[in-house]
Structures are given as C-alpha cells and as structure tokens.
C-alpha cells in the first residue's frame, strides 16, 4: 500500500494521522500524476495489485470558469496512470467518478439513466469513464470499477481526519462547517426557486466512511476478476435540500448557521438522487450512516480542528 499525492488541495500532515489511526507506516510519493516520468517511478519502486484513482480537480463552479485547466489535469493524469499500470502489469483500477455524468432527468438516477453533463468537471468524468471502458476492452487483463459518487460528507469518527480545503470552499458541507466554527460569517444558498420542497437544491449525501467501504468492496470484487468494466452508483438513495442540511448541522453542532440567498450557480441542477440498488446487489455494499451521523462527525472534526490540518488561522 502507498499514497501518491501532489498536495494541491490537501496537507502532508494527514499522513501522521493516518499512521496514528491505522498503526501502519504508509509509503508516500509526493508526485503529480500529470508528470508521467515521476508517476512511472512510483510503479518502479512499489508493486501494486490495484489502484484507487481519486486524483483530479473537482469543483463545478471552478470548472466552468477554468475549463481548460480541468480537461488538461483530469484527463492527462488518468492517461498517465493507465500507461504506468499497463507497463507494470497492474490489472485493477477503481475510479472516483461522479453523479455529474448524468443528464438532468427524473430521479432517482440508476446506472442506465441518460448521460450528458452540464459542466466541464462532469465532462472530464464522462470522458475518463469512456477512456476506462475502451482500455478494458483493449486489455482483457484490466479490471475496472467506475464508482459514481453522489455527495460525500462527514469525517472519520476519530475526529482526526476530515475535509480541509486549502482554498475557498467549493462544496456545501465544508462551508457550513466553517460558518459554524466562526471562520466565515455567512453561508450563501445558491437558488431558492428550484422545483423542490423548499426551493433549494436537493442532493443525495453519503458519509465518507460508507463511501470508503464501497471502494473496499469494489476492489475486492475486481481482484476476483480477470478483466471487465463495472459501473456502480454510491449514494444513500435519499435526497436532502441545502436548507435541510443547514438545519441538520445546526442540530448536530448546537450552532446557528446564518445564510443568505444568492443567485443560482451555472451548471447546478435542482435534484440529484441515487438509485444504488446495483451496488447493493453486486458489491454487497450498503450505506449504514445517517444524515445526523454525517453532520455530527463533520462537526467533531471541524470543532477540534477549526483551521484544518494547519491548526491555526492562516492569518495568524
């Protein structure tokens, strides 16, 4: 086991916490997957049975503003990874895809729902999925698991590992957390005129612990197979609006979350909810944790690490 990361949106300090929790020394390669030679060195130094591919830029709004950066980074790093895997006979990959590959359509969304994206971030995931499907067809020894995430939130139950954006938060939960802990004054709710029960956008939120279990189940299945490409949704199957999330986090934290209504963001949809029945049947996976669990673990992380892994205000 090893980790490769360029720490573009993460902190090297997480390594000591991972080792504290697991009781293991975890090899770290500080490389950018867009650097083909550096990535190949990782495979030369370490032997792998399989790879879980999380690397990529992931903010919808930023992708609309900087599409070429997203296409360059996300597609190139995946092509380099597949080349290195092929060169070094690594035959299993679990890919972190997204519900953004789906066309706006009736919910819940299953794996056969129409595909078609509304933003460049989603299109990079769509294109990588196609790349993986083609690679698995060309190489009968390559086994691929595509996991379409819905909205991961929450933190490790120890409170030692959680989401800590190094720049302005682009996702709902870390922004709520930073408002609750006093780092930001107010949450912006982007749109209150969607066709949803309270007018705010509805999403399917899943605890990161359940998501991690989904990856373990997917990799175990791949290592039993010689090849093929398999696609599964990972979600709770339940939709919660932005305003519901605010109220749930207030309940979990005991803090008031001030918010203001802002215009809709380009590329956002009204409602995105998963049908995860295929993952239940084929991966023997099922989410166990509730919305309250998600909010409580996120608050435990943020309240004990108000400035993330840095431990103090960047301005101090």
Number of strands: 12
- The domain count comes to 1
CATH architecture: 3-Layer(aba) Sandwich
Structural class: alpha/beta
> What is the overall pLDDT average?
93
Shape: globular
Oligomeric state of the chains in view: single chain
Note poorly predicted spans: 312-316
List the helices and strands and how they pair.
Layout: E1 3-4, H1 14-22, E2 28-29, H2 36-45, E3 51-53, H3 60-65, H4 67-87, E4 92-98, H5 120-138, E5 143-149, E6 151-153, H6 172-180, E7 187-190, E8 202-207, H7 208-223, E9 228-234, E10 239-241, H8 242-253, E11 259-262, E12 271-272, H9 277-282, H10 291-304
Parallel strand pairs: 1-2, 3-4, 4-5, 5-9, 6-8, 7-11, 8-12
Antiparallel strand pairs: 8-10
Helix pairs in contact: 2-4, 4-5, 6-8, 6-10, 8-10
Note down, in words, how this protein is organized.
By secondary structure, this protein is an alpha/beta fold. It contains ten helices and twelve strands. The chain has a four-stranded parallel beta sheet with strand order 3-4-5-9, sandwiched between helices. Strands 6, 8, 10 and 12 form a four-stranded mixed beta sheet that branches. It has a two-stranded parallel sheet with strand order 1-2.
């Amino acid at each position: 086991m090893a980790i490769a990361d360029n720490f573009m949106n993460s902190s090297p300090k997480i390594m000591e916490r991972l080792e504290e929790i697991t009781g293991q020394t975890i090899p770290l390669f500080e490389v950018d997957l867009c650097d083909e030679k550096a990535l190949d060195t990782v495979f030369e130094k370490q032997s792998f049975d399989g790879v879980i591919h999380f690397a990529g830029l992931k903010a919808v709004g930023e992708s609309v503003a900087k599409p070429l950066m997203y296409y360059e980074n996300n597609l190139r790093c995946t092509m380099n990874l597949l080349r290195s895997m092929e060169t070094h006979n690594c035959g299993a990959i679990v890919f972190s895809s997204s519900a953004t590959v789906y066309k706006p359509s009736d919910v819940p969304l299953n794996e056969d729902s129409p595909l078609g994206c509304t933003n460049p971030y989603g299109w990079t995931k769509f294109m990588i999925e196609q790349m993986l499907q083609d690679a698995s067809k060309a190489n009968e020894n390559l086994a691929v698991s595509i996991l379409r995430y819905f909205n991961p939130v929450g933190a490790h139950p120890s409170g030692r590992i959680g989401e800590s954006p190094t720049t302005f938060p682009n996702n709902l939960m870390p922004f709520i957390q930073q408002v609750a802990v006093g780092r930001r004054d107010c949450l912006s709710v982007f749109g209150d005129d969607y066709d949803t029960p309270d007018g705010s956008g509805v999403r399917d939120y899943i605890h990161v612990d359940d998501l991690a279990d989904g990856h373990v189940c997917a990799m175990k299945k791949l290592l039993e197979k010689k090849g093929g490409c398999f696609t599964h949704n990972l979600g709770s199957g339940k939709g919660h609006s932005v305003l519901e999330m605010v109220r749930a986090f207030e309940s979990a934290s005991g803090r008031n979350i001030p918010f203001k209504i802002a215009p809709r963001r380009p590329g956002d949809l009204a409602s995105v909810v998963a049908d995860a029945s295929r993952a239940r049947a084929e991966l023997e996976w099922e989410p166990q944790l509730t919305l309250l669990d998600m909010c409580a673990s996120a608050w435990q992380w943020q309240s004990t690490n108000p400035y993330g892994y840095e431990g103090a205000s960047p301005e101090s």
